[in-house]
């Protein structure tokens, strides 16, 4: 009898430890509103009652795939607790501030494959520039460069960087600036994006930062890029 009691006790102990070890890293209940894994927490709410469960699942998975890597690579001090809200009152694609991202549900009805909107937006949380002296186009250009490099399904969304055109300017922001940054990383100085990102977050960015990082002013870099823009 004591033998069986001992076995039963060991059985209960092993299962209790398994639940503790698995803890927040266990399989998600995607119908929930709070998700935790690896020290990161995501709160997901929606006031759109017909919002796709499949899209929600992909958004949650994208967050836990991409965000911890971006925090590791660009800002270890970034928020570990993030809030996503799908909001029928918001009309755009997405917007980010203070560790919170709001999404337009209509966008995902029209573009259900555009999951890397998540990648772009959570990079804004990692950037954490606050009242930065940097221009908007660098902020958005870096976020789209990150989408280009870290995105999990840009192809599925039909999203890509544009080919160079003489109508473009490096200050166009978003994908135009992102491609310019990708060219600099490939052809001029690897690590430029990380260095600019750090300068912006530390509020030490100036127009001279491009020269300090790459050895060349931004206008000279753009001129070289315009002559040979191949990545």
From TrEMBL:
Source organism, top-level taxon: Bacteria
Name of the featured protein: Basic secretory family protein
Family annotation (PANTHER family): PLANT BASIC SECRETORY PROTEIN (BSP) FAMILY PROTEIN, PTHR33321
N-terminal signal peptide: 1-18
UniProt keywords, alphabetically: Signal
Organism: Niabella pedocola
Entry keyword Methyltransferase: no
Bilayer-spanning residue ranges: none
Any Pfam family: BSP
UniProt entry tagged with the keyword Mitochondrion: no
């Amino acid at each position: 009898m004591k033998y069986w009691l001992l076995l039963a006790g060991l059985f209960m102990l092993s299962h209790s430890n398994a639940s503790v070890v698995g803890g927040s890293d266990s399989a998600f209940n995607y119908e929930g509103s709070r998700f935790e894994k690896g020290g990161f927490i995501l709160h997901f709410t929606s006031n759109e009652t017909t919002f796709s469960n499949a899209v929600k699942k992909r958004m949650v998975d994208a967050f836990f795939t991409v965000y911890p890597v971006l925090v590791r690579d660009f800002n270890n001090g970034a928020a570990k607790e993030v809030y996503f809200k799908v909001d029928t009152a918001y009309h755009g694609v997405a917007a980010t501030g203070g560790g919170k991202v709001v999404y337009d549900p209509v966008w995902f009805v029209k573009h259900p494959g555009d999951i890397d909107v998540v990648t772009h937006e959570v990079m804004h949380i990692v950037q954490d520039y606050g009242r930065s002296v940097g221009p908007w186009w660098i902020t958005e250009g870096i976020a789209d460069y990150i989408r280009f490099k870290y995105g999990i399904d840009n192809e599925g969304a039909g999203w890509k960087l544009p080919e160079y055109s003489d109508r473009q300017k490096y200050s166009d922001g978003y994908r135009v600036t992102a491609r310019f940054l990708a060219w600099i990383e490939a052809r001029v100085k690897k690590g430029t994006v990380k260095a600019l990102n750090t300068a912006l977050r530390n509020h030490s960015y100036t127009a001279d930062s491009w020269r300090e990082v790459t050895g060349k002013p931004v206008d000279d870099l753009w001129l070289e890029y315009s002559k040979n823009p191949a990545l």
